[in-house]
Design a protein that fits this description.
Helix content is about 35%, strand content about 30%. By secondary structure, the protein is α+β, with helices and mostly antiparallel strands.
């Protein structure tokens, strides 16, 4: 009987001591957290985007003679990306040039005859209008010639090529998606309760998953509205330095370290 009592007492004291130790450790942990106001906040997902990007579409219907760039290739501003068959626009330019020459000659003759009182003012106005119309048609033909070549509007990289040589394309048909990897921006969602201190100029660290590296970033602007349901706001930032390994579409996490940005 004494052995059983002794065993029960040992178990009781062991449980009391274990509970006390756990309680003390918990209090110490809470005190440490409370005394560490600069503890890193949760990481927020960010996406790398290009500020300068566009979809290039064909400005005319026709057959593609050349497509000079591939997916992922770099290009310079003004570089020819593709060219279309320009036989018809060139023929229309010749016709418009001939038509203008004819109406210019008629207008000049009408002017001379009017001085001799052989033409009425109305005939003079008609000749002038026909000449102006021919000039406008010639300018339209010249503009159509320019549409035969598809040139890059800025320096960048081909994100997607959607056409092939010898393919027939319609006017307005998408041909290329272009991005400028040198004008990158970070986009993410931030809690709206940060608004009193999370302002343009705030610096923080961004970890990009694809490169497994950390980069310095700076907040440049906030969205125009707060989402009432999620109590969040869009945030936009930029890298403080250029990094050639970064590309649009990469993602990672924004690491917010403290309320003062230090």
């Amino acid at each position: 009987m004494n052995i059983r009592l002794y065993t029960c007492l040992r178990i009781f004291f062991f449980l009391v001591i274990s509970t006390s130790i756990v309680h003390l450790l918990g209090n110490n942990s809470n005190a440490t957290e409370q005394n560490n106001p600069d503890k890193p906040m949760p990481t927020f997902r960010v996406q790398v985007k290009s500020l300068n990007h566009t979809v290039i579409s064909s400005l005319m219907a026709g057959q593609l003679l050349e497509v000079n760039v591939l997916d992922g290739e770099s290009f310079e501003k003004g570089q020819q990306l593709a060219s279309l068959d320009c036989s018809l626009p060139k023929a229309q330019l010749k016709r418009a040039t001939a038509t203008l020459n004819k109406h210019a000659a008629l207008y000049e003759t009408t002017q001379k005859l009017q001085r001799l009182k052989s033409r009425s003012p109305l005939e003079m106005e008609i000749a002038r209008a026909e000449k102006n119309q021919a000039e406008a048609e010639l300018e339209m033909a010249k503009q159509m010639i320019k549409r035969c070549n598809v040139n890059a509007p800025f320096s960048g990289r081909v994100a997607e090529r959607m056409v092939q040589p010898n393919q027939f394309v319609n006017e307005g048909q998408p041909m290329f998606t272009l991005v400028d990897p040198n004008s990158l921006e970070l986009e993410f969602i931030a809690p709206s309760i940060w608004l009193p201190w999370f302002k343009p100029g705030y610096k923080f660290i961004v970890h990009i998953d694809e490169t497994n590296k950390d980069y310095q970033a700076e907040l440049v602007r906030l969205g125009g509205t707060v989402d009432a349901v999620s109590q969040s706001i869009k945030a936009y930032a930029r890298f403080t330095e250029a990094h050639s390994e970064l590309l649009p579409g990469m993602s990672g996490g924004a690491i917010i370290n403290s309320l003062d940005g230090n």
